[in-house]
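step 3/5: co-fold with A4P
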Amino acid sequence: MNKASTRCAGRAHWPRETDQQIYAVGIGSNRLLAGLRPRDIVQQAFRALDTRPLRLAERSPIIASRPLGPSARSYANAAAIIVTPLRPHAMLDQLQAIERAFHRRRYRRWGARTLDLDLLLWSGGAVRSKRLTVPHPALVDRGFVLEPLRAIAPQWRHPVTCLTMRQLAFRLAQPRPTHR
Ligand code: A4P
Ligand code: MG
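step 4/5: write tokens
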């Protein structure tokens, strides 16, 4: 546990064995794959996320969301809570292997994708390396991430802001002041 996660106590209520890590994973899809629609791909991703060494502890409802960025197709988005012995960089490897299994190709940033898996939160707090930043930097700004995450982890605290996912989702949904 690092300092930030200790400061923001009261995170997760999932039963925890000492060597188990808990992750929140964001799931997005906006491309067809062999006749499967994005929503079906997200369903299949839940199955892949429940394959050893990963155990799917919670799955959110799947929502449809308008694309952020250049892609024209709407997305299916969801979130999952995963329990696993894998440490963060090994967990990222595992998520990228699942993306590859779904024929994801990295055409361009924010382009259409069959499956995008983002590491949103980790029970150990924060990670910052060349390959990996946790919490995911865009987590706090994106309704399509926070809405499903709030449904399955309302009390999990962001280790930097110390706000719960419920508070972050509520804050994002508030009307913002307009500048004249
Ligand atoms: N990386 C660093 N931190 C992380 C992390 N916490 N989780 C690195 C996952 N990866 C992380 O990611 C690029 C590199 O980021 C990885 O190699 C990894 O080492 P990527 O998935 O290959 O690239 P990307 O997804 O195209 O870029 P990026 O910036 O991750 O995009 P986002 O933030 O995932 O956004 N609109 C809607 N409605 N719904 C969506 O789901 N998604 C995006 C993509 C855009 N618009 C969207 C949606
Ligand atoms: Mg990504």
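step 5/5: annotate
Residues 107 and 154 are 34 Å apart (CA to CA).
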